[in-house]
Design goal:
heterodimer, A: mainly alpha, 20 helices, elongated, B: alpha+beta, Alpha-Beta Plaits, two-stranded antiparallel ribbon, 5 helices, 38% helix, flat
Chain lengths: 411, 148
């Protein structure tokens, strides 16, 4: 393979979605931009071989893609009068050096992310669009990762794009007053993608864990482009969770609880990066929910084992989370930490209160947590009742198998 | 990825067009096929003659029967097939949505069964091996650079 071709392929992996993002701005349409992007890379292989590699390859690709597409539209306009309008609009947009400015090109990726995660699109559409348009996954890859068929995802994407057109969703970075809310929506899409991969219980494990990688990559891209503590917080949270990947399941694919994990298998580099990001986000002055969750995850990551964990700190971080508003799931997690700090009886009392409120009576993990504390206290009969309740409510197979094992231990 | 696009023709609507209009449509289809070819998306295709020229084979009582035309009385009949190279299903949809043929009847887009092709190639079937080699040379090592 020629050197130029190799370079173009490397650039394709790294830059194609960014080039695409800029072409959406210049051509005003996702599908044209996709085609133009491919044409630009094809042209690069040919042109750079004879003319040399341009000083700014990305700007070259964007400009080439735009020209190629306008050419194609011009050719087909002979047969389709509706294209004449597009041409007139494009001719008004003379290629301006400023449009290919590095800063503007950088912002295009943000424009693309905010458009794909626009609040007028529903969540499943946001996820599918983000993975395909921003991350460059194919429709088939998205379908495999979400355990559904390509036509289902394809229709979601077609409808999403047509909604973007029909609702005139602008291709722009939200204004300062809108920004926090819009970032929130983007972060929630990223976290959804991450969790889908992280809690993968069935399907092709490799494809599914790719989702966690894509989510972390999105977090990093966003960090480069936006100075926002929660972006760093979420990226840290994902890195810290992901650092335990190798220790979470045993050779037979069975779940291993945090306290039983072989901590030497935890990924140290990911923990180190997570630690730096948490510190940065905590120092920013505006500490959000993702950052606090990341700090909790970090407290676990830094402990050598369960008993030497700083439960004091973890409980106080849960307290901090609860200041944002009542949340029974967070209360449950706090109760588990409390049990570790002050003993199982204390945690049990709190869990009983939460369950008595009725909020979590259908949540299998509430019953599982209760069962575990009862087991620690040696109250086998009561533990058995709670394990059975948890088992009845659990959905995921590895969780069910885990609960069955515990049930046997107390029976 | 390779897709097979089955383009149907609404025969009644087609026959109602003036021959001038028919020619214009055919011209537009050909122009768009050229564009697909230039982009590396057009792998092959055939326009089909009228169903009055066709026969259907069917097994009956252990014997092959030959009957006139497609069996079913449908308004929309297969008018042509197009083999398309696209990045994924959405790319195929985007490309074919712009095909002027869609205005003349529904288009079905089906992913080619590439495992079957590989299986046949592995069995030493020359045609499938050639198709596969062509595909390898079409696409670069980074799968997504499909038509460079």
């Amino acid at each position: 393979m020629s050197e130029v071709r190799q370079l173009v392929e490397t650039l394709y992996v790294r830059e194609s979605r960014r080039v695409f993002a800029s072409l959406v701005r210049l051509l005003g349409d996702f599908d044209s931009a996709e085609e133009a992007m491919h044409e630009a890379f094809a042209a690069a292989v040919e042109k750079w071989e004879t003319e040399g590699v341009p000083a700014n390859p990305r700007a070259w690709l964007v400009s080439a893609g735009r020209f190629k597409r306008i050419d194609a539209i011009r050719r087909s306009a002979r047969f389709d009068s509706s294209k004449a309008d597009i041409l007139r609009r494009q001719d008004g947009l003379q290629p301006d050096e400023k449009e290919l400015d590095v800063g503007r090109l950088e912002d295009d990726t943000l424009r693309l992310i905010f458009t794909c995660c626009h609040p007028s699109l529903n969540e499943s559409t946001q996820v599918a669009l983000t993975l395909r348009e921003v991350c460059g996954l194919t429709t088939e890859e998205v379908a495999r990762a979400f355990l559904t068929t390509p036509p289902t995802i394809a229709q979601r994407i077609v409808r999403g794009k047509s909604k973007i057109r029909s609702a005139n969703i602008p291709y722009e970075i939200p204004s300062v007053d809108e920004l926090p809310e819009r970032i929130e929506a983007v972060l929630s899409v990223i976290y959804l993608v991450f969790n889908e991969g992280y809690s993968a219980s069935s399907g092709d494990a490799v494809t599914r864990s790719d989702l966690t990688g894509e989510a972390i990559r999105l977090g990093r891209v966003l960090m480069e482009l936006l100075d926002d503590s929660e972006v760093a917080g979420l990226t840290a949270l994902m890195l810290l969770h992901d650092s335990r990947k190798a220790a979470r399941v045993d050779m037979d694919g069975e779940l291993i609880l945090l306290e039983d994990q072989d901590r030497s298998l935890w990924h140290r580099d990911a923990i180190q990066e997570g630690r730096q990001l948490v510190a940065k986000a905590m120092a920013s002055g505006s500490v959000g929910l993702y950052t606090i969750q990341a700090a909790i995850s970090l407290a676990h990551a830094e402990a050598e084992n369960s008993s030497s964990t700083n439960w004091e700190r973890i409980v106080s971080l849960y307290d901090l989370l609860l200041t944002a508003g009542e949340n029974p799931v967070i209360e449950l997690n706090r109760a588990v930490a409390l049990a570790m700090r002050d003993g199982p009886e204390v945690g049990l009392t709190v869990i009983n209160t939460i369950l008595a409120d009725g909020h979590l009576k259908d949540y299998h993990l509430a019953h599982a947590a209760k069962a575990d504390l009862l087991r620690r206290l040696g109250q086998k009969r009561e533990a058995k009742t709670s394990y059975l309740q948890a088992l009845e409510l659990a959905q995921l197979e590895p969780e069910k198998r885990f609960l069955k094992r515990r049930l046997q231990e107390v029976s | 990825m390779r897709f097979v696009c089955l383009g149907c023709l609404d025969v009644e609507a087609w026959n109602a067009l003036s021959s001038e209009e028919q020619n214009k449509r055919v011209e537009a289809c050909m122009a768009y096929d050229d564009e697909l070819l230039a982009g590396g998306h057009f792998v092959g295709g055939e326009a089909l003659k009228d169903v009055s020229q066709a026969v259907t084979l069917r097994m009956k009582n252990g014997e092959v029967q030959v009957v006139d035309g497609p069996y079913a009385e449908t308004k929309e009949l297969l008018g042509g097939i197009l083999i398309l190279e696209a990045r994924d299903l959405n790319h195929a949809i985007a490309l074919m949505s712009k095909h002027p043929g869609v205005s003349m009847g529904p288009f079905e887009i089906r992913p080619a069964n590439e495992e079957f092709m590989e299986m046949m190639a592995a069995r030493g079937h020359a045609f499938f091996r050639q198709m596969q080699e062509k595909k390898m040379s079409d696409s670069s090592s980074s799968e997504r650079l499909t038509h460079v």
